[in-house]
Fold this protein.
Amino acid sequence: MSNVLFVSSEAFPLIKTGGLGDVAGSLPSALLKQAQDVRLLLPAYPDVLKNTTKKKILAKSSYYYLDVELIESRLPGTNVTVLLVNCPAAFDRPGGPYSNQFGREWDDNALRFAIFCHAAVDIALNKLNLNWQPDIVHCNDWQSGLIPALLSLHKKRPATVFTIHNLAYQGVFEQSTFADLHLPGELWHMDGVEYYNQLSFIKAGLAYADKITAVSPTYAKEILEPEYAYGLDGLLSHRKQHLSGILNGIDEKHWNPGTDNYLAQKYNRRSLAKKSINKTALQKELSLPINQDIPMIGMVSRLVEQKGFDIILQALKEILKMPLQLVILGTGESHYELKLCEFEKQHPENFKIVVGYNEALAHRIEAASDMYLMPSTFEPCGLNQLYSLRYGTLPIVTAVGGLADTVINASEENIRNTTANGFVLKNKSSSELLNCIKNALSLYQTPEIWQQLQVTAMSGDFSWEASAKSYVALYQEAIKEI
Ligand code: ADP
Ligand code: GLC
């Protein structure tokens, strides 16, 4: 058994902006089941404080002359202990974890997450007298990047694992930030935290962690190439022997069409006929024409380039000429919101865009749709295609990252050998997207085949168990090696 400090800047159900929140909300429980003593470290944002109970102050400290309390609580719905870094100056403000209510990144993000990292380092080195010290510090994404770097300066320290959820977000700040944060001078060099004369939080994690993981095997390979590495392929190639890919799992309690309380009608793979009740319920909810036979394509997504909105917009006029309904729930870059709203105005009979973040609607779209659109330009793992598979909603995806690892194309051969569970674009183009949708629509007209694809999709094992075991094996390796 190891003691694991799992560090994340978000965790469902307390705070979530994307898949990292889902992972940090469910992987720690899976690690507990593998007999690891896991504590989850989170910033104490207002929503986090509001939604946690039985809080206890464990320690007090101060970083950059700002008062910090370490509060213990529980991740709701689990047995996972959460440790909250309560620094009101950094985290007690309205808006999101990384940006304000208008989507503008907080100006002091470097300071905010440096405080978070210092608290983690103090726990790791047992400086807060918690009566508990980790053997492993498992860091996630750039917000936790300084931790492996700072810990590397200590002889007696826990081992560190850094998981890349998305290399496109790096936490890069101007050079003066390094001095402002009083970071140790020995970290400032080309193989350290310095990145083209700037301070890179993610590079700090990648350069100094004992082990690096990416959230799917394919993404772990892709990021060795310039196309996917956002400038970090050199460093990652250099650290290749410590880099591996471990596929994300899903929280099967929360994402299960058989028990999902958000749905108008629960169903499973033996009662697939009931699934369409969710379609008509959603059509009613969103004021779309009610018709259980028309194929519905769904999408729940951050509205960013990564998710393939450029090729979707190029193809949208043609897509909306087809006999289908398209429903998108998302929030993000305003130019995408505007263009999608424009299309909605022109095609109210078969297109609905809901701008915003809505957990319940996300579940209802997964259940109501027949197909799920995810033609990402890159996708470290992707959780929505996994939710879709579980809900018998066949994903239409590009062959990148975790999408390539989890979706098997409905080719004639794969249908024959009953492995097909979705539709995979041959390349990332709008014409190929149209081809794939046409192919999906034509197979939809053959209910026996469609149902077989759905059953295959719903029978896949996307639980955390296997991946949690892989993390535990990696922890053991890291502990042995330091
Ligand atoms: P990413 O982390 O890149 O955004 P993932 O597929 O890994 O992509 O995870 C996205 C998660 O965020 C899913 O749980 C998805 O349902 C959720 N999500 C994204 N946008 C919204 C939204 N507008 N409303 C509700 N949930 C959303
Ligand atoms: C990131 C990635 C997504 C992945 C998620 C959780 O946000 O974009 O592909 O599923 O992290 O690891």
About this structure: The mean pLDDT is 98. The first strand starts at residue 3 and ends at 7. The chain has two domains: 3-249+464-481, 272-459.
